[in-house]
Design a protein that fits this description.
There is one protein chain. A hairpin with a 5-residue loop joins strand 1 and strand 2. By secondary structure, this protein is mainly α. Residues 4-30 have low confidence and may be disordered. The protein is 38% helix and 3% strand.
Length: 221
């Protein structure tokens, strides 16, 4: 656990440093706004009216599209060529290709009767578990998970299947509680909240500036 908390301390220190966001064309954009960061990275977009609407809920289809972009799931090797039958996502659906990719990579799963429920809202626990599945879930022992989740007032509401995922993103510094120390795992995930999570992950991916080279000392006379 000493190594775990050392890592958390380092994360806290790094979060105080300026953030350089690199857009898709690798042009640096400096911003502390999570929404601006994920838009610059082309991970999320504004609506047609130019507004982001951070309070709107994320649907399963939207989350599938985001996960494919963030983790480049379409570039993973060995994806099956044949499509998976999904009764409620026809080939004409706007997110058909990305839904196929998240299913083929097992980042997201369908429901019985070959249903995906693309318009269904995603809870915070579900969204975080899906993100962690793509990122890589840390195989913490149960006592470590208990210790990581202990500070959160509503930890008892976290579903058993989501505990490792939440412990992973908390340990990595990707989410923070509200003012009362709650995660609210059963509430729907909003666009603003997923943007915040993604911005923290994006900061982890940024290229660090080169270490300045000290000038050589003048020769001794």
């Amino acid at each position: 656990m000493r190594n775990c908390f050392t890592t958390l301390s380092l994360i806290a220190l790094l979060q105080t440093l300026p953030v350089m966001v690199y857009a898709a064309d690798n042009v640096a954009v400096q911003s502390s706004d999570p929404i601006a960061q994920v838009i610059a990275a082309n991970w999320m977009r504004n609506f047609a009216d130019g507004k982001f609407y951070p309070e709107r809920m994320i649907s399963r289809a939207e989350l599938a599209v985001i996960m494919v972009k963030v983790f480049k799931l379409d570039q993973r090797q060995g994806l099956p060529k044949e499509n998976i039958a999904v009764a409620d996502v026809p080939t004409s659906h706007w997110a058909f290709n990305d839904i196929q990719i998240v299913l083929k990579t097992a980042i997201m799963r369908g429901y019985r009767d070959n249903l995906f429920f693309p318009n269904q809202q995603v809870t915070k626990a579900e969204a975080i578990a899906i993100f962690a599945q793509a990122y890589g879930v840390f195989q913490f022992p149960d006592e470590t998970i208990d210790e990581i989740l202990a500070p959160y007032a509503d930890r008892a509401l976290i579903p058993t299947w989501a505990r490792k995922a939440l412990a992973t993103v908390i340990a990595e510094g990707f989410i923070t509680p509200d003012a009362r120390g709650n995660i609210k795992p059963l509430q729907p995930m909003t666009r603003g909240e997923i943007a915040y999570l993604l911005s923290k992950y994006l900061q982890r991916q940024q290229r660090q500036p080169d270490t300045p080279i000290a000038p050589e000392a003048p020769p001794m006379k």
